[in-house]
Amino acid sequence: IVVTGSDDHLWKMWALPDGNIIMTGEGHTDQLSGCCFHPSGTQLVTSSGDTTVRIWDFSKRGCVLTLEGHAHAVRDCSWHSCGDFVASASVDNTSKIWDVNSERCRYTMCGHEDSVNSIEFLPFSNTVLTSSADKTLSLWDART
Questions:
Q1: Where are the transmembrane segments (predicted)?
Q2: Which residues face 142 on adjacent strands?
Q3: Which domain holds residue 136?
């Protein structure tokens, strides 16, 4: 499976090797900047220049949750290995940890002096790694 974005703010999921389109997602109003499969493979999280993070459910064939709270474009997103949390990295110099079940931001991580460009959970832990245009990497404890 391959997920691709396009200039018209749609994403498409392609099956390999036949190249058939499995699903198309529409809803973001700006460029798509990141995507990550849920650990179970049943959902996809996407980030966008429209300042939002969206969760897409394959069985429902659409967006099931839009997370809003960043002040500027969101550059990247990642699922926690338990599947209950999503992390996002933004041009607003912050990253956020979202609780998917309560549909709210649990933590906002501040400290970078420029845009946060990527974010990733260390598998099976509460440690988050961010990279920034300020030329630093930061390790965060997502619980504090």
A1: none
A2: none
A3: 30-141
> Does residue 4 sit within a domain?
no
Residues 78/86, Cβ–Cβ less than 8 Å:
yes
Cβ burial of 7 (10 Å; 0-12, 13-18, 19+) is exposed
Euclidean distance between CA atoms 67 and 105, whole angstroms: 8
**Which uninterrupted H or E stretch holds 103?**
none
Question: Alpha-carbon distance 78 to 71, whole Å?
Answer: 19
Give the H/E segment covering residue 128: strand 127-132
The neighbour count for residue 20, using CB atoms within 10 Å, is 9
Give the global pTM.
0.87
Handedness of CA 3, 42, 76, 48 (dihedral sign): positive
Could you tell me if residue 119 is inside a domain?
yes
Q: How many domains does the chain have?
A: 1
Quick: pLDDT tens for 22-79: 667 777 888 889 989 999 989 999 999 999 999 999 888 889 999 999 999 999 999 9
Asked if residue 14 belongs to a domain, the reply is no
Q: What is the CATH number of the domain that holds 84?
A: 2.130.10.10
